[in-house]
Amino acid sequence: MPETAATPPAIVWFRDDLRLADNPALYRAAKSGQPLACVYVLDETHPRIRALGGAARWWLHHSLQALEASLAAHGGTLLLLRGSETRAVLQLADALRAGAVYWNRRYGEAQREVDAALKTSLRQRGLVVESANAALLYEPWEVLTNAGGPFRMYTPYWRAAGKLGGVADPLPEPAQWRFAPLPARLPMRAALDDLKLLPQAPEPDWAGGMREAWSCGEAAAAQRMHEFLKGGLHDYEAGRDRPDLPATSRLSPHLRFGEISPRRVWHAAHAAGGAGRDKFLAELGWREFCYSLLYHFPDMATRNFKPEFDTMPWRDDAHALRAWQRGMTGYPLVDAGMRQLWTTGWMHNRVRMVVASFLVKHLMIDWRIGEAWFWDTLVDADPASNTANWQWVAGCGADAAPYFRVFNPVLQGKKFDPQGDYVRRWVPELARMPAAQIHEPWAASAPHLAQAGVRLGQDYPRPIVVHDEARKRALDAYASLGGRGPMSRLR
């Protein structure tokens, strides 16, 4: 419709969709012909919506900065508000005398409740409200069993998803841009720095490694995707488990904050082809499955998916937990992963499985404690994937790894970091150890240790647990659940 002086603005509420291309809410609002008011609300007041961890807050700052620049290039502004989402959007709608509000859907239970109530309030005030899917290939309510319920196993879920038909084509950026004048004063308005998403003095600046490792924003996401599809997709299936090789997409934080859409990645991967394409797309499918679980089982972040694990005899061991968090367990692959995480806000997926298994099964520490550490330290900390993956490793989740699978960090290191290059990068104390001994330095002879400049217990710790003993302890604990044998309820 043509713009006139009386045309009421349309609010575009950005959330986990910090991009211009393939953004259905933005596209529909722009196509309506109404002048746009683009807003992001940082709400840290809701008691049931989990606040972002430190690493994710760092990413959010830079992603918002990139989005501000993208909108400014088209003559627009990203309005930043802080406080209750509901109050912020209602106040903005009143101040602008807006005619419509557009947003893309979220899938956590508390977020859905906020959106539903706000949609009702806005419509009662006479506004048009539209929501759309920008985060997933398929909506959680679209992929269901023949009985109409949610899937609890990934393979049948992904098979059923494939029968729904093709993935919708990604939308372009809006062809035309019109922006509404924004109110000079809003009680909840904030500048980006006012949101305090970065490390704040006197807190040390712990983000240097992340600044070195990452570029944030929509343009960086597109570049990362194209580089991977051009150079890494063909060998993805063979190389994806090798942390010593640059063989993964590293798109997870870009997807987490919606700097690129899964639809765009899906179609780009299909166009690129290559031997690793199907395996890569299956990883997108696992992300979809995790969001289905979040939607249908919203308490997965705090409760065991399998209730028989509620009696698991977890240990309270602050010393062991601290050693794990700092990458000082004495197991080089575990320590390399935890140090990579602390430095860059990211960890290779194979190593994530190994370090999670180590915490839960070697140390017998509750998976929720590990999940909380990842939530605070991962730039891609995702409410669906983080929880589902931790429960998968612990054996208590949907489609979980068998409880008796206890990753041996030495064998995992020898298999997936065969020359020790990953360990050498992140555990420099062991840089001079030969490949044959780098994953178990305690087994090296005194002359070999001396030649490598390693003094166990001084330069690098001895193992805090013995693998065989820890494995037996874990299996005994799993076998005790429900007071039955290990192959009864945990089959």
UniProtKB/TrEMBL annotation:
Electron transfer via tryptophanyl radical, annotated site positions: W314, W367, W390
EC number: 4.1.99.3
GO terms assigned for molecular function: deoxyribodipyrimidine photo-lyase activity; DNA binding; FAD binding
Keywords for this protein: Chromophore, FAD, Flavoprotein, Lyase
Cell wall biogenesis/degradation recorded as keyword: no
Signal peptide: none
UniProt domain Photolyase/cryptochrome alpha/beta: residue ranges: 8-137
This protein's name: Deoxyribodipyrimidine photo-lyase
Organism, scientific name: Bordetella genomosp. 13
